[in-house]
Amino acid sequence: MRAVVVHGPGDLRVDERPDPMPGAGEVLVAMEWGGICGSDVAYWKNGASGTATLRHPLVLGHEVAGRIAGLGAGVSGLEVGTPVTVHPAEPVGDPRMPERLAGRTNLHPCVRYFGSAAFDPHTDGGFSGLRTVRADQIRVLPEGVDTASGALAEPLGVALHAVSRAGDLRGRTVLVNGAGPIGALVVAAAKHAGAATVIASDIAERSLAVARAMGADETVDVSTATLPEDVEIVFEASGAPAALGSVLRATARGGTLVQVGNLPGAAVSAALGDLVTREITWIGSYRFVEEISDALRAMAAGLVVAPVVSHRFGIDDAAEALAVAAAPGSSKVLLRLDGQAA
């Protein structure tokens, strides 16, 4: 089978690897589509994503979908040919959590994640023709959700988790700063959750156009205009420390700011005074718990995610696909992983 493998900074290859076979309790998935995430781009460009540093070649990809191609011993309730996506997280070690974190498995202290170099040996991702997966990580696609949309369930799950962290959005006005793929999906998730008005802001008009297609009622080009004032619920999806000061100022006194964009792991300079003087509640949002299943149900119920996709490439053009995903103005880039035309 072919696999998209990063060997080091700037060194991406489509390698031939042996076909895997499912072991006991595992499912073999023939992958069809994969979505490129910022972490995939980071491993390719820098040889690291956050604090996770590449030590060995790594198969990229944690936003994937395909069809079941085989079942290992002891697996029941699943059938070959069924379209599926994958929950990419696997807690390692003692699964018990402190009572105050009950149910918040995304905060487990030790988690293997598809396409991650956080552990040595690394955890290969799903940008490959075939991948074995623990049966409990399989999520069956509902009727009407194709595998291209199924590959978007993971990032939509991230967006739905962020929205859930903000509380009840029904009838409220929301600002989403940063209209990249996650920000655009937060726009859609906020509207799905009943927000009356969603404002999206970005420096790129192409990204704002995607946000409008995903349901934004208003958009702000912050390269030429300022953010609105006194917004009660704000989502910061850019991950840009330089934006924090203006985003905090846009948040209403006593309002809530949900940080869903990944901030750097190193020291940064940011104007944070309004956090105190405006008594803002600043909430972090990390990955998701089971919102990937909520994402599938939402798509089956009519939540449209297709506008977030800006480009599609075949697996042989993976290097070009990552370069496009890293370029300003692109949105979600999909890879066709089974060799069929993209």
TrEMBL record:
The keyword Iron does not apply. It holds the Pfam family ADH_zinc_N. The keyword Iron-sulfur does not apply. Residues 8-335 form the Enoyl reductase (ER) domain. PROSITE patterns: ADH_ZINC. Gene3D superfamilies: Medium-chain alcohol dehydrogenases, catalytic domain (3.90.180.10), NAD(P)-binding Rossmann-like Domain (3.40.50.720). It comes from the Bacteria. This is L-idonate 5-dehydrogenase. Transmembrane segments: none annotated. Keywords: Metal-binding, Oxidoreductase, Zinc. Belongs to the zinc-containing alcohol dehydrogenase family. InterPro entries: ADH-like_C (IPR013149), ADH-like_N (IPR013154), ADH_Zn_CS (IPR002328), ER (IPR020843), GroES-like_sf (IPR011032), NAD(P)-bd_dom_sf (IPR036291). Its cofactor is Zn(2+). It comes from Pseudonocardia lutea.
